[in-house]
């Protein structure tokens, strides 16, 4: 009797340990998947990540079913896709590693939502100022925040604090060649001019070396910081450019610039949150597994109802 009890206890402990490790493994995978979806901010990129996750699941299932040839092909595809994603999502991975290095673990699980911060009157003031600066061929560089405030550690030199209301007259005055702050960038947060004379890190891309310092600075800061866009006026030609996520769009007309700013700072529509809720993510994974193994969908339906 004692031997039977000891054997039963040992067996159940081994089973419980195996179940605990398996559950922990699944939770870690779900957490990592959610973290990856959080750092993705574009819908087309999200579908690419989902396709990559599908390939990994298919590779794991083919290995479990001992489908050697299919598993070999899928493993090579997963490796190739991982390399391709590392190249195409280098800005996202860079931001992820920076947040991880700074210990900002909470932000890794917080989806980014566009906060409405600029009214039509503020956009009109900015556009009117850019129009006059472009007409007179006066160089300018504006940084416009789109979501949370930019960390000053991302600037080479943080500049001079102003905390002034946005107006076309003040913006034109700041960038006049004889003023002390005209060489740097000006940061706009909501309807306030936060600071001017900011020195930004330059982009190291080969293609950008043919551009002027302001354009390279605009590309450099938008490469490092995702939650901002930059408006640039060329001192030589007066042409207008817009930088976002390390990409420079130029030349822009005044009408096109206004449309671009209105599209990014809409007062009626928030940018879609790409990352789903935790329960939604678990439900999606369960639905996928249920479809493969014909498991009951009660858990997934329950979560869908609760949402």
TrEMBL record:
Pfam families: DAC
Superkingdom of source: Bacteria
PROSITE patterns in the cross-refs: DAC
UniProt xrefs under InterPro entries: C-di-AMP_synthase (IPR014046), CdaA (IPR034701), DisA (IPR050338), DNA_integrity_DisA_N_sf (IPR036888), DNA_integrity_scan_DisA_N (IPR003390)
Membrane spanning residue stretches: 20-40, 52-71
Domain DAC per the UniProt entry, residue ranges: 90-254
Signal peptide: none
SUPFAM superfamilies, sorted: YojJ-like
Biological process according to GO: cAMP biosynthetic process
Enzyme Commission numbers on file: 2.7.7.85
Keywords linked to the UniProt accession: ATP-binding, Cell membrane, Membrane, Nucleotide-binding, Nucleotidyltransferase, Transferase, Transmembrane, Transmembrane helix
GO molecular-function term, one example from the UniProt record: diadenylate cyclase activity
Enzyme class: transferase
Catalysed reaction, written as an equation: 2 ATP = 3',3'-c-di-AMP + 2 diphosphate
PANTHER family: DIADENYLATE CYCLASE
Family designation: Belongs to the adenylate cyclase family. DacA/CdaA subfamily.
Assembly notes: Probably a homodimer.
Function: Catalyzes the condensation of 2 ATP molecules into cyclic di-AMP (c-di-AMP), a second messenger used to regulate differing processes in different bacteria.
HAMAP family cross-referenced by the UniProt entry: DacA
Name under which the protein is recorded: Diadenylate cyclase
Lineage of the organism: Bacteria, Bacillati, Cyanobacteriota, Cyanophyceae, Nostocales
